[in-house]
Specification:
Mean pLDDT: 97
Helix content: 40-55%
Bound molecules: 1,3-dihydroxyacetonephosphate
Number of strands: 8
Low-confidence stretches: none
Organism: Gordonia polyisoprenivorans
Order of helices and strands: EHEHEHEHHEHHHEHHEHEH
Strand order of the largest sheet: 1-2-3-4-5-6-7-8
CATH class of one domain: Alpha Beta
Function: Involved in the gluconeogenesis. Catalyzes stereospecifically the conversion of dihydroxyacetone phosphate (DHAP) to D-glyceraldehyde-3-phosphate (G3P).
Structural class: alpha/beta
Number of helices: 12
CATH superfamily of one domain: Aldolase class I
Subunit structure: Homodimer.
Strand content: 5-15%
Shape: globular
CATH architecture of one domain: Alpha-Beta Barrel
Largest sheet: 8 strands, parallel, barrel
Subcellular location: Cytoplasm
Protein name: Triosephosphate isomerase
Distance between the termini: 21 Å
């Protein structure tokens, strides 16, 4: 973490919690994190689409400082795309962030870098901040090619974007072998790839853009390991899966990313 970048803790709920459960969780997190924390950390929740309207109502009604976003969006604005959700709809619901190219979508929905790029452009077009995910599988990690692999995925996912647009994205490095496995990358592993991400951003945009973009780590992050991870120079927060479904754990790890004290 560097002083010039405010840490971001994003809770990716994946396909968990219905809209009533979503309201309860958001209220608990907000209660545990009074306003002073938000001076030092941005906290966002990323629920399923069907929860977003309810989350918006709580956040607006109670004037909460946490933000919310979506787990995916369509590359298209509107039309005959059954089952897809437009960035325009998400913007209208007050979403701040949208996750793009999560490894679960790259793997289970065959999303290529080209698709991720198109979705990143759609997010930017609608004023949403894309959280663009990259990350290698275990085979790549074991072959020692992980830095080159992530750099290539990053370049492919941002190909042709202007420095001005790149300045508006968040990057999340999530090694696939560390997702939902309890096998967290070491803080040094996270730093190695996040530093390579920043070097690449300087190459495809410029140095000041690279210095301003937030690069998150994701993969089995919890209250016990978050301190070490966000303590790394080039890691500016975390994309949290399982631990974001528990109010106490998520509030605690957000407070740790803020530099304390514990809630
Ligand atoms: O995929 C993730 C967040 O997007 C990480 O999930 P876990 O924190 O459950 O490993």
């Amino acid at each position: 973490m560097s002083g010039s970048r405010k840490p971001l803790i994003a809770g990716n709920w994946k396909m968990n919690l219905n809209h009533l459960e979503a309201i309860a969780l958001v209220q608990k997190i907000a209660f545990a994190l009074p306003a002073k924390y938000f001076e030092k950390v941005d906290v966002t929740v990323i629920p399923p689409f069907t929860d977003i309207r309810s989350v918006q109502t709580v956040v607006d009604g109670d004037k909460l400082l946490l933000t919310y976003g979506a787990q995916d969006l369509s590359a298209h604005d509107s039309g005959a795309y059954t089952g897809e959700i437009s960035g325009a709809f998400l913007a209208k619901l007050g979403c701040t962030f949208v996750v793009v190219g999560h490894s679960e979508r790259r793997t289970m929905h065959a999303e290529t870098d080209e698709v991720v790029l198109a979705k990143t452009k759609a997010a930017l077009k609608h004023g949403l901040t894309p959280i663009v995910c990259i990350g290698e599988g275990l085979d790549i990690r074991e072959s020692g090619e992980h830095v080159a692999y992530n750099v290539a995925q990053l370049k492919g996912s941002l190909a042709g974007l202007s420095a001005e647009d790149i300045a508006k994205v968040v990057i999340a490095y999530e090694p696939v072998w560390a997702i939902g496995t309890g096998r967290v990358a070491s803080a040094a592993d996270a730093q190695e790839v996040c530093a390579a991400v920043r070097t690449t951003l300087a190459e495809i945009a410029d140095a000041s853009t690279a210095a301003s973009v937030r690069v998150l780590y994701g993969g089995s992050v919890n209250a016990k390991n978050v301190g070490d991870i966000v303590g790394q120079t080039d890691v500016d927060g975390a994309l949290v899966g399982g631990a974001s479904l528990k109010a106490d754990e998520f509030s605690t790890l957000s407070a740790i990313a803020a530099g304390g004290p514990l809630p």
